[in-house]
Design brief:
The complex is a heterodimer of chains A (592) and B (239). In chain A, 78% of the residues lie in helices and 2% in strands. Chain A has 19 helices and four strands. A two-stranded antiparallel sheet of chain A has the order 1-2. Chain A has a two-stranded antiparallel ribbon with strand order 3-4. Chain A is globular and about 105 Å long. Classes of the chains: A mainly alpha (592), B mainly alpha (239).
């Protein structure tokens, strides 16, 4: 301060010494500036800023990463309550307390995960307002009624979550437990609407509709009901269940690998099984929902459909096939390991069926991963007569992909049924007939799916899309909905020949669970990019053009690097949430 | 080393032989590109590892010899082989790295999008010509005059001029070509030709003429009708 005071005093002394000269200079500057006032009067008000950027990182990259992380966290926060609530209901209905413990363990994660999701949502909103003011202005103009609904939903969701979590122990008996389950239902009910409201904003960007004149509410409502809104809602809902299940599995896998005693091993082995089961449960109908979404996209706009499925983004679907393939293989592998290790003596009995199922899965995956246009050198392309292989090129189109995805779903379902029936002997008099019916049903369904797939090449596209593909899906669903209750009925009177042993799984089972979770996260980042980049150089498809320097689609390799980064950051955030949430448990646990 | 490891090696060898030598010799087939062979071999290897590690015994039988060979003591004469493998692995990695980074005269692998997305102005169009036998017949006539030299009288992409082109003209009788597309897509492709393709479609790789300078729109729509009828295919529709 003293130094500053000295500096000011020195300045004042200098001014005093040259007062005349300085005054003259000021007058001169003032006079010379006068014409500028006249120019200033003619200047139009500054144009509104359309875009802002951030150096080095780039606004698009930053928004890409934050939006994807927010979506993944949201998927986790919306998927886990479904999972937790189902477990709580099972515990309530069957009296098995371990399901209640599992549900509580995961609900505990929700509070910190919920705050992190909201934090990323807030960051995303600020970034969007800062980087894309014109677009945000346009969207706000259309959607502001739903912004208010969204805020209200957040308020009730937060209150319900706090009641659900903090009231867990207090609401354990009788009517209170029923009320707690009702709270869990409401938590999921509000969460569903929290998901579908922002979905309407994002899907409007991809498939906008003509907005007629009318009240603000009518315009927002019309924009919300755009062609891809419900397909995305359903697809995301199921995907969130899958994400929740597999992340639960990964958590259990890691805890199993680091378990310190037999009790922990038993518990986390069982938790891994439940997580994998829920993940597979969601995974089975997911391709159907994806197919419906792509059909709607194609029907809405041929250009967008071809950009995704036949154009430069089609390579993403080959990557998708690889990731889904690993997921199917990983989930089945975990089921098979379960049969081998948890049900002693089953290995020899089921080794051959496992080999058959593995072969079918690999063949199907081979077909699914075969692109229509192959990556070939000039010489290879010359020999093939182009980049389509004359024989294997037929694997590159939807008829083949739909067929093999349905077969993979059937095989995975068979794996689950096999696991369910292992170690038990049916005693019902009609067991033989029921098993014959189930086996015939599976075989006939497999044949029907293949026949429809092959036939699909010889009929008009619309017949294949509307009838054959739908029939394939219905056949698989019929098989699942017939065999599941039939098996449950059979097992009701079955005799347990070998008790299931928990905690004996090898370490690779834990790694398989972690791998599955990573695959799901990678899949979501991949498809997030596909959905967003299908708009190409439009903020709102066909309505508002992207005129920023980033109005180009990034190269697929670059996009893959960002997807990997997003997956890595999300895994780190999830690990942090798990670590924070379980810190107190570890401190309380007695060391063995 | 032998026994349990020999089977997987033989299996991979058989799969490779089938892909490399048997599949190309099936009538109507062609050699598979290396990228596809690699993909299928990776799948085979994954399958072998999955099956071999399903139980403790099978895992030990599969992985045990490898582990013993790499880390075990008293392996006798195999010690020399171990050093050989340990030397060979980095050499293979180095060779691969050199191959992928060294300057080569060979052009890079092609990744051309055969059916890129059409421009927006073509997506909503529908064929304005009524589908009558006369119109189809006329379309086939125009096709014979303007298209068949390359795309073939049988609509199979094997016209007399086709041998001069790489990539070859499209085969319309293949159910994975025009049957997957809407009529408006064909209208765009015929009208704008190769030069009208977007970058991912590599316009420099298509010799298709820009027919809009020679043919009126009505003729193009009729050609499309004739093409579908002649190739026994139907266009993609939503009704």
């Amino acid at each position: 301060m003293q130094q500053q005071g000295g500096w000011i005093q020195r300045l004042l002394r200098a001014v005093k010494g040259h007062g005349g000269t300085l005054s003259g200079l000021l007058w001169a500057v003032g006079l010379l500036s006068l014409p500028a006032l006249a120019f200033g009067a003619d200047v139009a008000p500054a144009a509104a800023t359309e875009y802002r950027d951030i150096p080095y990182i780039g606004s698009r990259n930053l928004v890409w990463v934050v939006a994807q992380l927010h979506l993944l966290l949201a998927g986790f926060v919306l998927g886990v309550p479904i999972f937790a609530w189902l477990c709580e209901v099972v515990a309530w209905k069957t009296g098995e307390k371990r399901y209640d413990k599992l549900a509580k363990e995961f609900t505990k994660l929700l509070t910190s995960a919920y705050a992190t999701t909201a934090l990323f949502g807030g960051i995303l909103l600020f970034l969007l307002i800062s980087f894309y003011p014109k677009l945000m202005n346009y969207l706000t103009d259309i959607f502001f009624p739903s912004f208010i609904v969204y805020c209200l939903l957040f308020l009730v969701e937060t209150a319900t979550l706090y009641l659900y979590w903090y009231g867990w122990d207090a609401m354990q008996d009788g009517g209170k437990k029923k009320f707690h389950i009702f709270l869990g239902f409401m938590l999921n009910f509000f969460a569903f609407f929290i998901m579908i409201v922002p979905n309407s904003w994002a899907t409007f960007q991809a498939s906008p509709v003509v907005l007629a004149e009318g009240s603000d509410l009518a315009r927002a409502w019309a924009a919300t009901w755009n062609p891809t809104w419900w397909p995305v809602n359903i697809h995301r809902l199921i995907a969130n269940v899958v994400l929740g299940g597999y992340i639960c599995g990964a958590y259990a896998g890691i805890r199993y690998l680091s378990a310190r005693n037999a009790e922990e091993r038993d518990h986390y082995d069982w938790m891994g099984y439940v997580g994998n089961f829920i993940g597979v449960f969601g995974l089975l109908p997911l391709p159907f929902a994806g197919y419906w979404l792509m059909r709607e996209v194609y029907q809405y706009n041929q250009q967008m459909g071809i950009t995704l499925m036949g154009g430069f983004l089609s390579w993403l679907f080959i990557l998708q096939a690889m990731l889904i393939g690993v997921l199917f293989l990983g989930s089945n592998y975990y089921f098979w390991l379960g049969i081998t290790y948890r049900i002693p003596g089953s290995e020899l009995k089921y080794r051959k069926p496992m080999l058959s199922m593995l072969l079918i899965l690999l063949l199907c995956l081979g077909v699914w991963m075969t692109p229509h246009s192959l990556v070939a050198s000039l010489e290879e392309a010359r020999k093939m007569g182009g980049t389509h292989h004359p024989l294997l090129g037929v694997f590159g189109v939807m008829s083949a992909k739909m067929t093999v995805s349905n077969l993979m779903i059937l095989v995975t379902f068979m794996s689950f049924i096999m696991y369910w029936r292992a170690g038990k002997e049916e005693t019902a008099g009609w067991a033989k007939a029921a098993k014959a019916v189930m086996n015939s049903l599976l075989v006939l369904a497999g044949i029907a799916v293949v026949v429809l797939g092959v036939w699909g090449y010889f009929v008009p596209a619309i017949v294949r899309i509307n009838y054959f593909s739908t029939s394939q899906v219905l056949i698989v669903l019929f098989v699942m909905l017939t065999i599941t209750p039939l098996t449950a009925l059979l097992l009701k009177s079955a005799k347990t020949t070998t008790e299931m042993v928990w905690g004996k799984m090898p370490p690779r089972a834990g790694y398989a669970l972690v791998l599955n979770a990573v695959m799901v996260i990678l899949l979501m980042t991949l498809m997030g990019y596909a959905r967003s980049s299908s708009r190409v150089h439009w903020h709102v498809y066909g309505v508002m053009r992207d005129s920023s320097p980033y109005a180009f689609s990034p190269a697929l390799g670059y996009a893959a690097a960002i997807m990997a980064l997003n997956t890595f950051i999300f895994c780190m955030i999830t690990a942090f949430i798990f670590w924070v949430a379980t810190m107190s448990d570890k401190a309380k646990a007695p060391h063995s | 080393m032998g026994g349990p490891l020999l089977k997987p090696v033989i299996l991979i060898g058989i799969v490779y032989a089938i892909l490399k030598f048997a599949v190309p010799n099936i009538p109507g087939s062609a050699p598979l590109p290396a990228s596809l062979i690699f993909l299928y071999l990776m799948l085979t290897t994954s399958g072998i590892v999955i099956f071999a590690t399903l139980s403790g015994e099978s895992k030990d039988a599969f992985w045990g010899p490898i582990q013993r060979f790499l880390t075990g003591e008293n392996i006798g004469n195999l010690q020399v082989l171990r050093y050989g493998v340990l030397l060979l692995l980095p050499l293979i990695v180095g060779w691969q790295t050199y191959n992928s980074t060294a300057i080569s005269a060979a052009p890079p692998a092609e990744n051309r999008t055969i059916h890129p997305a059409p421009p927006g102005e073509y997506t909503g169009l529908s064929n304005p010509i009524a589908k009558t036998p006369d119109a189809i017949q006329q379309g086939k006539g125009f096709y014979a005059a303007f298209c068949s030299p390359c795309h073939g009288g049988n609509f199979d992409g094997k016209g007399p001029a086709s041998r001069g082109f790489n990539p070859p003209p499209a085969n319309f009788s293949d159910p994975t070509t025009i049957a997957m597309l809407q009529e408006s897509y064909l209208f765009w492709r015929i009208k704008k030709g190769g030069v009208g393709l977007p970058i991912e479609g590599m316009p420099w790789k298509s010799a298709m003429p820009r027919w809009e300078v020679e043919l009126p729109d009505e003729w193009i729509w009729k050609i499309i009708m004739g093409e579908y009828d002649g190739a026994h295919q139907s266009p993609r529709t939503w009704e």
